[in-house]
Amino acid sequence: MPSQTVLVINSGSSSIKYQLVDPETGDALAKGLVERIGDPMGVITHTHGGAVTEEEMPVPDHTVGMREVLRLFDTEGPTLAEAGIVAVGHRIVQGGRHFDGPALITDGVRDLIEELCPLAPLHNPAHLKGIDVARELMPGVPHVAVFDTAFFQQLPDRSALYALETETAEKYSVRRYGAHGTSHQFVSQEIAKMLGRDDLKQIVLHLGNGASASAVRCGKPIDTSMGLTPLEGLMMGTRTGDIDPAVVFHLERVAGMSVGEVDTLFNKKSGMKGMTGESDMRSVWAMIDNDDDPVAQKRARTAMDVYVNRLVKYVGSYTAELGGLDVITFTAGIGENDVHVRRELAEALSPFGVKIDVEANKARSGEPRVISAPDSTVELVVFPTNEELAIARQALAFA
Ligand code: AMP
């Protein structure tokens, strides 16, 4: 067991995800998930040293959930005495204008996170539950908030502001905050190290169930695709990404849909899921490969064309914003694993001299790797993101 570890907590409305991280190596020494908090029956899964413990029990609230997690550390290991936790890092979705970096959680910081609940009504209240119970149960170590929006607080006004009437925008804090910032920052910094250059013009494509793109120049973000909320930008597993805002008024007028219904439609029932019935890219590719169902096949192929075209648009516009491009990095579930999406994007960019190495692209590996041909105008890199490690390192600085 290393001498110093950080417990990383991601507290959701009905779940607590946790990982004990060695901030030196990035190893996950133990991890787990409390699910269905508040339901009649909850589930806790704890993994340590290859052994998985799963327990079903009622978990009425986050306090009980966190107590059970600490109990599992002591019964299944590593015990809290041997774990050497020097800090707890809390993932927070929305830090608004208040936080451009990690913050030691004091009562004042806690209140600011609470103040930001209207901007992240599903996430920040759930984070606060995790913060309150973890601070109570582990009072002896610093608790650090790491914000998903912090990196993008450096965005220039030209990309952070919407062309909305200024008074309304300011009064209601309407601007681009971005999301997945911890991942975009981590990956762009690691790419600069990997390629040995701090003057890179980079595009990072974080393609998971939620998906976002960022443009980073000399280590600073200059644009990102998620906006006031994580709905804007790329097409996602269940979210529309960019859509004409007038669709909201149109659906209200012609379909009698309420704002709440359109919110659910855009966030939960659209994207890949809405266009094909499946949100997982593996299932969508399976539909594309299935000649026995030509109707589903065509629908899936069209949805994939929309997905890739959105990527092409963002890469094109970000290249112009960056004034050139050195590297595109693919990360998260789809970015790291979907060979076809990477190839189709590279093919669409081939008129600009982008060349993928077909064999390198196909190779299965969990390691960072270059997948472009040596004579490509832009380097293409696959880099596994590690948000827990990034949070652990930022929290360690306060220990
Ligand atoms: P994330 O949100 O980063 O965990 O990414 C989850 C998504 O990654 C899933 O919904 C899948 O669409 C995608 N994914 C995971 N593994 C693969 C794979 N081998 N090939 C294609 N897509 C994958």
CATH topology tier name of the largest domain: Nucleotidyltransferase, domain 5
Biggest sheet, spatial arrangement of strands: 5-4-3-2-1-6-8-7
Helix percent band: 40-55%
CATH homology superfamily name of the largest domain: ATPase, nucleotide binding domain
Q: How much of the residues is beta strand, in percent?
A: 15-25%
Q: Kindly name the structural category.
A: alpha/beta
**Termini Cα gap:** 18 Å
Number of strands: 14
Which consecutive residue ranges, at least 5 long each, have pLDDT under 50?
Answer: none
Individual helix count: 16
Reading off the top of the CATH hierarchy, the class of the largest domain is best stated as Alpha Beta
Mean pLDDT: 97
Element-by-element helix/strand order: EEEEEHHEEHHEHHHEEEHHHHHEHHHEEH
Binding site for Mg(2+): 10, 387
Keywords: ATP-binding, Cytoplasm, Kinase, Magnesium, Metal-binding, Nucleotide-binding, Transferase
GO molecular function, one term: acetate kinase activity
Pfam family, one: Acetate_kinase
Model description:
The protein has 399 residues and is an alpha/beta fold. The protein has 2 domains: 5-147, ATPase, nucleotide binding domain (Nucleotidyltransferase, domain 5, 2-Layer Sandwich), CATH 3.30.420.40; 197-387, Nucleotidyltransferase, domain 5 (2-Layer Sandwich). The protein is built from 16 helices and 14 strands. The chain has an 8-stranded mixed sheet with strand order 5-4-3-2-1-6-8-7, with helices on both faces. A 6-stranded mixed sheet has the order 11-10-9-12-14-13, sandwiched between helices. The longest helix has 29 residues, at 294-322. Adenosine monophosphate (AMP) is lined by residues 208-209, 237, 279-282, 332-334, 337-338. The site of adenosine monophosphate has 12 residues, from α11 and α13.
